[in-house]
């Protein structure tokens, strides 16, 4: 089989230097899925994925002082130099951040710039040329085969929440406000995450999200954005792949992608939501009732929604 290589560039600094990016999301070795191979740093790939790539801002008018300091400024990125010779019809632009009020102008500018270099431009936004759900990636270190074949792990605890202390947008701050409500209630749950505020009673940070999910019946999966029909993130995929029943707050995209009963809808981030979590997590009954739906959802995530599967289908259509 003549495999087509897919390179990748991202503004997520931890991704674009990793040769093995997403190799754990395929049952085959070296990132192979169907007719393609994911090789993020391939020097001359057949296709290129621009994954949440932020295009440089256009040059701004400079004052005399700015001009005197220009030698100290970082040089502008030459976009053509990082496309590795891939023709536009084989360059894919996928934006995965939600259209929050604070960044919507940045998203629009990225989409506009992408039109100069990319034949396919998509993201979870109504205003992009191809609005679509984000293909699934996840943040467990387990192999694809292990996730695909494992039975439910032993559940020994009620509920967990893995989140961060990011507060740069109103939506992030709303989530932190809800965290305070949850912690002031009688809900029994374990909190994990980075950069959380000092008042947060957390159990620590995790190197592998699996350990903060797999032992729990329930997981609080609270999106930063719930206002359109496209956005759903790894918060859902991670919980389900760990055999948790997600208590989910987000938009309607998840209802269209996953089978009924595979997750629970948190009604709101207020006292009503607190009462709902208390009722559900009081017993593991809801998890047992949802076990078959969780198993079905896991297969959909692993095989259908998987970004590697999405890329393989794209390569098939454009080779």
Total beta strand runs: 12
Name of the CATH architecture of the largest domain: 3-Layer(aba) Sandwich
CATH class of the largest domain: Alpha Beta
**Contiguous helical run count:** 10
Strands side by side in the biggest sheet: 2-3-1-4-5-6-7
Total of domains = 2
Rg result: 21 Å
Family: Belongs to the glycosyltransferase 10 family.
Pfam families: Glyco_transf_10 (PF00852)
Domain Fucosyltransferase C-terminal: 154-269
GO cellular component, one term: membrane
Question: How would you portray this structure in words?
Answer:
- The structure is a single chain.
- The radius of gyration is 21 Å and the shape is globular.
- It has helices at 64-68, 79-82, 104-114, 144-149, 170-184, 234-241, 253-257, 271-281, 285-305, 307-318, and strands at 4-10, 32-33, 36-38, 47-51, 91-94, 120-123, 130-131, 157-162, 190-192, 216-222, 245-249, 264-265.
- The chain has 10 helices and 12 strands.
- The strands form 2 sheets. It has a 7-stranded mixed sheet, covered by helices on one side.
- It is of the alpha/beta class.
- It folds into 2 domains: 4-132, no CATH class; 144-304, Glycosyl transferase family 10, C-terminal domain (Rossmann fold).
- Helices cover 31% and strands 16% of the residues.
- The longest helix has 21 residues, at 285-305.
- The model has no long low-confidence stretch (mean pLDDT 93).
- Strand 2 and strand 3 (36-38) form a beta hairpin.
């Amino acid at each position: 089989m003549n495999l087509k290589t897919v390179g990748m560039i991202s503004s997520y600094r931890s991704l674009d230097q990793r040769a093995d990016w997403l190799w754990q999301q395929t049952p085959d070795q070296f990132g192979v899925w169907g007719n393609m191979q994911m090789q993020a740093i391939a020097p001359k790939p057949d296709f290129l994925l621009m994954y949440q790539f932020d295009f440089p801002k256009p040059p701004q008018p400079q004052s005399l002082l700015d001009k005197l300091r220009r030698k100290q400024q970082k040089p502008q990125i030459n976009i053509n130099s990082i496309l590795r010779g891939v023709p536009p019809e084989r360059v894919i632009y996928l934006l995965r951040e939600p259209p929050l009020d604070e960044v919507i102008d940045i998203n629009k500018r990225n989409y506009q710039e992408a039109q100069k270099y990319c034949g396919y431009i998509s993201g979870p936004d109504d205003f992009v040329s191809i609005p679509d759900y984000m293909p699934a990636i996840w943040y467990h270190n387990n192999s694809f085969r292990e996730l695909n074949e494992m039975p439910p792990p032993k559940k020994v605890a009620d509920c967990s929440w893995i989140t961060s202390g990011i507060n740069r947008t109103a939506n992030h701050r709303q989530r932190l406000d809800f965290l305070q409500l949850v912690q002031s209630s009688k809900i029994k749950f374990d909190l994990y995450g980075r950069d959380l505020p000092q008042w947060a009673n957390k159990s620590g940070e995790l190197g592998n999200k699996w350990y903060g999910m797999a032992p729990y019946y329930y997981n609080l999966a609270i999106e930063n954005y719930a206002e359109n029909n496209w956005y759903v993130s790894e918060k859902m995929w991670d919980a389900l792949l760990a055999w948790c029943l997600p208590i989910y707050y987000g938009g309607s995209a998840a209802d269209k992608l996953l089978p009924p009963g595979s997750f629970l809808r948190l009604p709101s981030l207020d006292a009503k939501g607190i009462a709902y979590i208390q009722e559900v997590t009081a017993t593991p009954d809801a998890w047992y009732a949802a076990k078959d739906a969780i198993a079905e959802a896991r297969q959909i995530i692993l095989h259908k929604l998987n970004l590697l599967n999405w890329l393989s289908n794209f390569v098939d259509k454009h080779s």
